[in-house]
Design brief:
Layout: E1 16-20, E2 26-31, E3 52-56, E4 72-76, E5 103-111, H1 112-115, H2 125-136, E6 140-146, H3 168-172, E7 177-182, E8 187-192, H4 197-214, E9 220-224, E10 239-240, H5 247-260, E11 266-268, H6 274-282, E12 286-292, H7 303-307, E13 312-316, H8 320-323, H9 339-348, E14 351-355, H10 365-378, E15 386-397, E16 402-412, E17 422-429, E18 435-445, E19 455-463, E20 469-475, H11 478-482, E21 502-504
Parallel strand pairs: 4-5, 4-14, 5-6, 6-9, 9-11, 11-12, 12-13, 13-14
Antiparallel strand pairs: 1-2, 2-19, 3-15, 7-8, 7-10, 15-16, 16-19, 17-18, 17-20, 20-21
Length: 506
């Protein structure tokens, strides 16, 4: 299997971006060609060294798991009842399931016919209840809307509405369906004709309505394009007699989604390959794969999305308990779960989003009990992870004023870039991390520019505050900082305060 280096320096040339205010305060960012953190900073003053004092801070990595937004692990969260104390495996359940400490977003499926019960009618109430529950727990949601789920086909007498989740009105409007054989148990099943013009029309109409409701909604992490096939995975491998639509029709559906979703991240499901995969990337649609660990080389399929500067998404071939029983027989079987294969899947695919365990029954409970230390450590590898490696405060006393300059070196020690805008702030603060005054200007780090393995130097300069501590913070928007909100992104260092600011002190 071809492996890519997950860490390393990606920047070979230095450049400077500066912003200076009328009061002489400034903020700068430098890319450096070494990850050692020993490069010298340029002083903000040409004053004599006898007028300068320097504090060099001792920095250590944060102990324990570290979760951050727009990356990380998920477990199935199908409805708001997940958070009911009566659900023993939930975050408030009787088993005290600590796997939830690692979960940054919920994931699961919704049924098309439930969200779109009649022509031109939509019912978002159940989804809204779930989104609100997740928000209360500091989590986003990865949305998948299924048109079909063969998992519920028991026999020839299974009611169609149990597994065919295409709304009834679509058929009433003239969409065709066929009878196929479900290979799992030999039962006959009704299946939509995936390239039927009426079906395609209403699938696009639903996408338009979904975008009107949720495009750019901060509660949504990403949305899978699930228009075709079993579980919307763009395959019909278990339905003998059913056929996927042509590549051109698949591309046309992706084009429609990209045209109506202008803000939210879109994801191509597992079996969108070849020209369809290439076309998705050209539209800014990233890729997921749901067969990691179990099938050799699967993680490599996601590298194309990573190289296109997009976050990658993955699940495994099955739940943790099931994968432990795999026999390592290939072909015809699946590789069993091992810690080494789990780490390899994360690093090879440069994963930003990954399921901790997709077992609905215990929400990662057994997995986390068996692999706590490893899982905790991988919260700092999955996606981005910002570690302050060096911090120095220079205070220069001049004839008219006293100026402080904070120089810090930060490395992204994760396996992927940060795929959203960041705003770095330095402040003078008290011992509790409460801000006294901003030091220098806010630094904007555009999304996907702080690469994995890269090291950057940042400098903040402004009037000194005698006796104050210094805190640094990462925000998702400058407006959040100006509005007095706490930061949302944490550095991987000791000294993180309750408000998520990193207080520098020795």
């Amino acid at each position: 299997m071809k492996r890519l280096a997950c860490f390393g320096v990606l920047i070979s040339a230095a450049f400077v971006l500066s912003a200076c205010g009328d009061d002489g305060s400034s903020a700068s960012v430098y890319d450096v060609s070494s990850s050692s953190g020993n490069d010298k900073f340029t002083s903000a003053s040409s004053a004599n060294l006898s007028d300068t004092t320097k504090i060099t801070y001792t920095l250590k990595r944060f102990k324990g798991p570290l979760t951050n937004p727009h990356k990380g692990f998920t477990v199935p969260t199908e409805a708001a009842w997940t958070f009911d104390p009566g659900f023993e495996y939930g975050p408030h359940g009787s088993l005290n399931n600590k796997a939830w400490d690692l979960v940054t977003y919920g994931s699961g499926y919704q049924q098309w016919d439930k969200l779109n019960p009649a022509k031109g009618k939509y019912d978002w109430s159940g989804l809204e209840e779930l989104l609100d529950a997740l928000t209360e727990h500091g989590m986003g949601y990865a949305l998948r809307v299924f048109p079909y789920s063969p998992s519920f086909i028991r026999d020839n007498d299974t009611p169609e509405e149990n597994y065919d989740w295409t709304p009834k009105f679509v058929y009433e409007e003239g969409a065709k369906k066929i009878t196929a054989k479900y290979k799992d148990n030999g039962a006959n099943a009704a299946v939509p004709v995936w390239d039927d013009s009426v079906y395609l029309h209403y699938a696009k109409e639903f996408a338009t309505a979904l975008a009107a409701k949720y495009d750019g909604d901060p509660r949504i992490e990403y949305i899978d394009v699930r228009s075709f096939g079993e579980w919307g995975e763009w395959h019909v491998s278990n339905l003998e007699g059913s056929h996927m639509p042509s590549v051109e029709i698949q591309k046309d559906m992706l084009k429609h989604y990209a045209s109506v979703f202008k803000k939210s991240l879109l994801v191509l499901p597992s079996d969108g390959y070849g020209d369809v995969y290439s076309y998705a990337l050209s539209l800014g649609i990233t890729k997921r794969d749901d067969c990691l660990i179990g099938i050799p080389g699967t993680a490599d399929s996601l590298v194309r999305a990573y190289e296109a500067n997009m976050p990658t998404v993955a699940e495994n071939c099955g739940g943790y308990a099931i994968m432990l029983n795999y026999t390592d027989v290939i072909p015809g079987g699946y590789l069993k779960w091992t810690p080494e294969r789990w780490v390899d899947a994360i690093t090879t695919a440069h994963l930003t989003y990954y399921v901790l365990d997709q077992d609905f029954d215990d929400c990662g409970y057994r997995f986390y009990n068996d692999n706590k230390a490893l899982a905790d450590s991988m919260t700092k590898v999955l996606g981005y992870n910002f570690t302050v490696e060096l911090a120095e405060l220079l205070t220069v006393s001049g004839a008219k004023d006293t100026t402080s300059t904070l120089n810090i070196t930060v490395k992204n020690t994760g396996v992927a870039p940060c795929f959203f805008d960041l705003y770095m702030v330095a402040e003078f603060a008290d011992s509790a991390g409460t801000a006294i005054a901003q030091l220098g200007k806010t630094i904007h780090i555009p999304k996907a520019t702080f690469k994995d393995g890269a090291t950057k130097e940042f400098s903040f300069s402004g009037p000194a505050k005698a006796g104050a501590f210094v805190a640094i913070s990462l925000y998702e928007s400058e407006e959040a900082y100006k509005g007095g909100k706490n930061p949302t992104v944490r550095f991987d260092n000791d000294g993180i305060m309750e408000n998520k600011k990193l207080l520098l002190k020795n």
